[in-house]
Write a structure and sequence with these properties.
Helix content: 25-40%
CATH topology of the largest domain: Glutaredoxin
Number of helices: 7
Distance between the termini: 40 Å
CATH superfamily of the largest domain: Glutaredoxin
Oligomer: single chain
Bound molecules: FE2/S2 (inorganic) cluster
CATH architecture of the largest domain: 3-Layer(aba) Sandwich
Number of strands: 5
CATH class of the largest domain: Alpha Beta
Strand content: 5-15%
Order of helices and strands: HHHHEHHEEEEH
Largest sheet: 5 strands, mixed
Shape: elongated
Structural class: alpha+beta
Length: 206
């Protein structure tokens, strides 16, 4: 297990494996960062440096990628990150009210984390689930449409289930309404950059 900043041997090995999956080694950078964040909970600079070292790229490439994507956290976050959508449909549907209810219940606004480390509230632009407006992304799961009663139910569930994302409940969870786990392909030997075989007679290298 990692000490919170260093990656575990298992994660390092998985990132290393990913570098053999893509035609270009550096393509493993994005899924590698995702694996690092999954283990640590956010992306400290030490973790980004480790991913860069394993993939074999300049650490600045890691920092650039991590700052581009909203779902990479560069500072500690709570166990549950509640990302309220503030896109047009959700704004018109009441995202401001959702943020107000969260402020009342949790005492925090966007960008803040509760003192017990359980919740972080953030805002996002359109989450591409406008039919659920007003909606939110809780870790990797969509919830919505949210009203006051559903939000209270959600907070109750989050507080009482140690593995909340595995339970069904508010807002269509359990019906595939989540960001799927990445399914990484297996290596294609035709594209492997580590293929050291000698070609058989008549076999060309692509
Ligand atoms: S505006 Fe909120 S999901 Fe599109």
């Amino acid at each position: 297990m990692s000490d919170g900043l260093r990656l575990s041997a298992k994660t390092r090995a998985e990132i290393e494996r990913l570098t053999t999956v893509y035609p270009v080694r550096r393509s493993a950078l994005l899924p590698g960062l995702r694996l690092a964040q999954r283990e640590i909970g956010w992306l400290p600079r030490e973790a980004m440096d480790e991913v860069a070292e394993i993939v074999g790229v300049d650490p600045n490439a890691c920092y650039a990628l991590a700052t581009f994507y909203d779902l990479f956290y560069r500072e500690p976050v709570g166990k549950y990150v509640i990302g309220v959508c503030e896109g047009l449909a959700c704004h018109l549907g009441g995202s401001g009210r959702v943020l107000g209810w969260l402020k009342e219940r949790l005492g925090i606004g966007p960008g803040e984390t509760t003192a017990d480390g359980l919740f972080t509230v953030r805002t996002f632009e359109c989450l591409a689930a406008c039919d659920r407006a007003p909606c939110a992304l809780v870790n990797d799961e969509y919830v919505g449409p949210l009203d006051e009663a559903r939000l209270d139910e959600l907070l109750r569930e989050l507080r009482s289930h140690p593995n909340w994302s595995r339970v069904s409940g508010v807002g269509g969870r359990g019906s595939g309404a989540s960001i799927p786990d990445p399914q990484y392909p297996t290596p294609d030997p035709r594209h492997s950059t580590t293929d050291t075989r000698h070609p058989a007679p008549g076999e060309g290298r692509s």
